Amino acid sequence: MNKARSNPLNSVMMHGALILYTLIALFPVFVILINSFKTRKAIFREPLALPDADSFSTIGYETVMKQGDFLLYFQNSMIVTVASIFFVLLFGAMAAYALSEYRFRGNMLMGLYLALGIMIPIRIGTVAILEMMVATGLVNTLWALILVYTAQGLPLAVFILSEFMRQVSDDLKNAGRIDGLSEYTIFFRLVLPLVRPAMATVAVFNMIPIWNDLWFPLILAPAEETKTLTLGSQVFIGQFVTDWNAVLSALSMAILPVLILYVIFSRQLIRGITSGAVK
Amino acid sequence: MNKARIRWHILVFLAPAVIVYTAVMIFPLFNTLRLALYTRIEQERVFAGLDNFRTLFFDPIWAEQFWNALGNNFWFFLVHMLVQNPIGIALAALLSHPRLRFAALYRSAIFIPTILSFVIVGFAWKLILSPIWGIAPSMLDAVGLKSLFAPWLGKEEYALTTLALISVWQFVGIPMMLIYAALLTIPEEILEAGEVDGITGMSAFWKIKLPLILPSIGIISILTFVGNFNAFDLIYAAQGALAGPDFSTDILGTFMYRTFFGFQLQLGDPHMGSAIAGAMFAIILLGVCIYLFGIQTRMRRYQL
């Protein structure tokens, strides 16, 4: 059985193709990381060699730490990402519960209204968002970013979470009602813990675009004390274009946090995408 | 249930999401479209009807930039459709092979560029393709193709395609994952039935799997379309707001940014910026409608 599909020659060719593409995917990251630990001379003489005792140097990192406030940028990115995801999950789950649990007039319409934002990018409204943030004094605060990312993440979150909440058994909720639990208690104590996997999927989906966004930090919060890591590294690298050590180190420092997050969450992310949550 | 009673908890559950979504997304969207109909004359905001759009489409200075950006944007999209999606599908087809070892490892590794920010990707490729550093020329030299090297990002005729390919490199993981997921849902019996009829290997892919994953290909196409027509970050990170050399990499996102935020000596004009946003909105809406009504409803779906 399945003879044609397990031909050894085929298998070699398949691995060959996949290895080739994996190399293409990883090569630039690898080159940046190894060269960030080399002296300026070694960077240019042998860009593809690993750093050895002779060429090892952390001068780039020293410049970066001295010149740029990367710890602050990192902290800002962290606050914005965590807070946005928190609000997306809380508000998204609450709305999804209302839509999937109760029948009321306008339920369908409300669902459609909230789903509009899945396809339409929030960036189109940037001019008015900026005016609004200026008018309310939120410009150059992290709140501006948190609000925007929360609004941006809600449509897909409501959509995915309400699909999952429909699967929570009615008997469980009715048992809670008979025991005299309030609707709020039923939601927070019974339903939320059951949709935790779906919430993790939503969180991971939102995490990367928020962390990596350049547009809104650039427009809504470009001040030094509210720069995110993405914007901070963009500005820093722009200033140090000729200092190759500093540029390579700054890039590596921007790569590492995402890479670490990815290693922790990749299983969740890939399972989320492949479970068809975005269909 | 008592009909007259207002069920407050429904309101409480819905309110936060609806308020934030309406206030920060839907309202600004329409407000931007409204602002496109105004203009500023001596610090006063005056209603100008469709004048901004007339300027954008027909005024020689503006129109040239607009059509340039729009054309570039279409080319950017075309490169994604012709390169990113076929490679993604091919990788997914390889990965979904039932007895492939290390599939999870390949999958995670190929997805890594997708999680990096545009800033990292833009600068990393800029360094690698830089003639000063010389990684790209010396690698081409190693395979005897040194004569092909050119400072791709600095030449008008290559820069846009180079950036599009960099973006393809970054995002190939998304079509790969979505198609991979679709391929996994094809039941083994169908493939075995095909095998009994002598359809194996490549022809099994073309004749059985491809028709079954067409709906997913439709989804990745529309995702690519929306993503490309609202792209900005990669061009800005690699080429700056001026989308050099000589605006050859200018797309709608960078054009809108320059217009409403201003750059160098030109002052920002929120009203013209809104007009460009309006044009982008119309293009994206048109694309989504073509997909929803023209493609999705006509696509044959097979019950599995």
TrEMBL record, chain A:
<feature type="transmembrane region" description="Helical">
    <location>
        <begin position="246"/>
        <end position="265"/>
    </location>
</feature>
<feature type="transmembrane region" description="Helical">
    <location>
        <begin position="142"/>
        <end position="165"/>
    </location>
</feature>
<keyword id="KW-0472">Membrane</keyword>
<keyword id="KW-1003">Cell membrane</keyword>
<dbReference type="InterPro" id="IPR000515">
    <property type="entry name" value="MetI-like"/>
</dbReference>
<feature type="transmembrane region" description="Helical">
    <location>
        <begin position="78"/>
        <end position="99"/>
    </location>
</feature>
<keyword id="KW-1133">Transmembrane helix</keyword>
<feature type="transmembrane region" description="Helical">
    <location>
        <begin position="111"/>
        <end position="130"/>
    </location>
</feature>
<keyword id="KW-0812">Transmembrane</keyword>
<dbReference type="InterPro" id="IPR035906">
    <property type="entry name" value="MetI-like_sf"/>
</dbReference>
<comment type="similarity">
    <text>Belongs to the binding-protein-dependent transport system permease family.</text>
</comment>
<dbReference type="Pfam" id="PF00528">
    <property type="entry name" value="BPD_transp_1"/>
</dbReference>
<feature type="domain" description="ABC transmembrane type-1">
    <location>
        <begin position="74"/>
        <end position="265"/>
    </location>
</feature>
<protein>
    <submittedName>
        <fullName>Carbohydrate ABC transporter permease</fullName>
    </submittedName>
</protein>
<feature type="transmembrane region" description="Helical">
    <location>
        <begin position="186"/>
        <end position="208"/>
    </location>
</feature>
<keyword id="KW-0813">Transport</keyword>
<feature type="transmembrane region" description="Helical">
    <location>
        <begin position="12"/>
        <end position="34"/>
    </location>
</feature>
TrEMBL record, chain B:
<feature type="transmembrane region" description="Helical">
    <location>
        <begin position="12"/>
        <end position="30"/>
    </location>
</feature>
<feature type="transmembrane region" description="Helical">
    <location>
        <begin position="108"/>
        <end position="128"/>
    </location>
</feature>
<feature type="transmembrane region" description="Helical">
    <location>
        <begin position="275"/>
        <end position="294"/>
    </location>
</feature>
<keyword id="KW-1003">Cell membrane</keyword>
<dbReference type="InterPro" id="IPR051393">
    <property type="entry name" value="ABC_transporter_permease"/>
</dbReference>
<protein>
    <submittedName>
        <fullName>Sugar ABC transporter permease</fullName>
    </submittedName>
</protein>
<keyword id="KW-1133">Transmembrane helix</keyword>
<feature type="transmembrane region" description="Helical">
    <location>
        <begin position="212"/>
        <end position="232"/>
    </location>
</feature>
<feature type="transmembrane region" description="Helical">
    <location>
        <begin position="74"/>
        <end position="96"/>
    </location>
</feature>
<keyword id="KW-0813">Transport</keyword>
<feature type="domain" description="ABC transmembrane type-1">
    <location>
        <begin position="70"/>
        <end position="293"/>
    </location>
</feature>
<keyword id="KW-0472">Membrane</keyword>
<keyword id="KW-0812">Transmembrane</keyword>
<dbReference type="InterPro" id="IPR035906">
    <property type="entry name" value="MetI-like_sf"/>
</dbReference>
<feature type="transmembrane region" description="Helical">
    <location>
        <begin position="158"/>
        <end position="183"/>
    </location>
</feature>
<comment type="similarity">
    <text>Belongs to the binding-protein-dependent transport system permease family.</text>
</comment>
<dbReference type="Pfam" id="PF00528">
    <property type="entry name" value="BPD_transp_1"/>
</dbReference>
<dbReference type="InterPro" id="IPR000515">
    <property type="entry name" value="MetI-like"/>
</dbReference>
